[in-house]
Structure formats: structure tokens, C-alpha cells
Design goal:
- The protein has four helices and twelve strands; from the N terminus they run H-E-E-H-E-E-E-E-E-H-E-H-E-E-E-E.
- The protein is of the alpha+beta class.
- The protein has one domain.
Length: 164
């Protein structure tokens, strides 16, 4: 499997193995193991928290469900958990917009431009089936290169801080 296969599959299904928006955090860690804890995303408490498995970053809500998934692709190499990404889980980065669009089209995954995140030196598109967002950096004089792919949408109604 290559990185375009992984990203296209995520765009079509909204999943990477056990990881999807709304997934139980205990199910994710039972399958992928303990992640790197990047810390709290709020000054008011311990939750929500940001965790990482290499370049797969997950925001986890106070209700202990995944609320945001990001695949960081701006580095030289993209590292994802091998158990869900295949092979070593290590992929070359520098994913060109034209290559991603071609992969989405070949996979039958409809997409459209995403104007709210298209401005200045970046552009964005959204995959219709999952609402996955792909945001590209546009280096001066070059074609757009994928910076990040994200999925979000967990609408938690939890008001209690939860355990821990």
C-alpha cells in the first residue's frame, strides 16, 4: 500500500483501521497501543487531549471519543501505524495535489474545492463521502503540495469533565 492508497481509502471511508471520528479511545489504544501524549488542548482542564502515532494525530474529547483525525504530510516522511497502514508504515511525503486528485478520481471518490481554507499560499479540497479535508501549501512557482489531511465532526454533548 502507498500513501495515496491510504489517504484515498480514508477519504472514502472516514477510517484508518480502528480510527474514525467518534471511535472509542479505549478501542483505538487496544488496537494501536499507547500513543505519544502531546498534551491538553484546553487551559481549563485535562481534556480534550491531543495524541499521536507518528504523523497520525488524534484529538480525544472528554467523553473519550476521537473528535479529530489529522495526517501530517508536511514532513519529509509520513509515519503511520504499520498495523493499519501496511508495510513499514513509512511513506515519502511531498504529495502533489494533481497526484491526490488523480488517486481520488481513480478510486471513484468524489471531491470538490473547499473555499473556506483556500486563500493566500494554500488551497483546499474536501472528499464528499467522508468530508475529509485536504489542505495544500502552494510554494512560490510550484504546484500545490499536501500539508495535512483532516477528518472531524464528533458532536459531543458531554459537559462533565469525565474521569482523569
Amino acid at each position: 500500500m502507498n500513501i495515496l492508497d491510504v489517504l484515498t481509502d480514508m477519504a472514502k471511508t472516514g477510517r484508518l483501521g480502528p480510527v474514525f471520528v467518534g471511535a472509542s479511545w479505549s478501542d483505538v489504544t487496544a488496537t494501536l497501543g499507547e500513543p505519544w501524549d502531546m498534551g491538553t488542548m484546553s487551559r481549563r482542564g485535562k481534556w480534550p487531549r491531543l495524541f499521536a502515532y507518528g504523523d497520525l494525530e488524534l484529538s480525544v474529547c472528554r467523553c473519550r471519543k476521537v473528535s479529530l483525525i489529522c495526517v501530517q504530510t508536511w514532513r519529509d516522511v509520513v509515519e503511520l501505524p504499520p498495523s493499519v497502514a501496511g508495510g513499514t508504515g513509512t511513506f515519502p511525503a511531498a504529495i502533489k495535489q494533481a497526484d491526490l486528485i488523480s488517486a481520488l478520481d481513480e478510486a471513484g471518490c468524489p471531491w470538490q474545492p473547499y473555499p473556506p481554507l483556500t486563500f493566500g499560499d494554500q488551497c483546499s479540497l474536501v472528499a464528499i463521502p467522508s468530508r475529509a479535508n485536504f489542505t495544500f501549501e502552494i510554494p512560490q512557482g510550484e504546484e500545490p503540495v499536501l500539508n495535512v489531511m483532516g477528518l472531524h465532526g464528533h458532536g459531543c454533548s458531554s459537559r462533565s469533565p469525565g474521569p482523569g
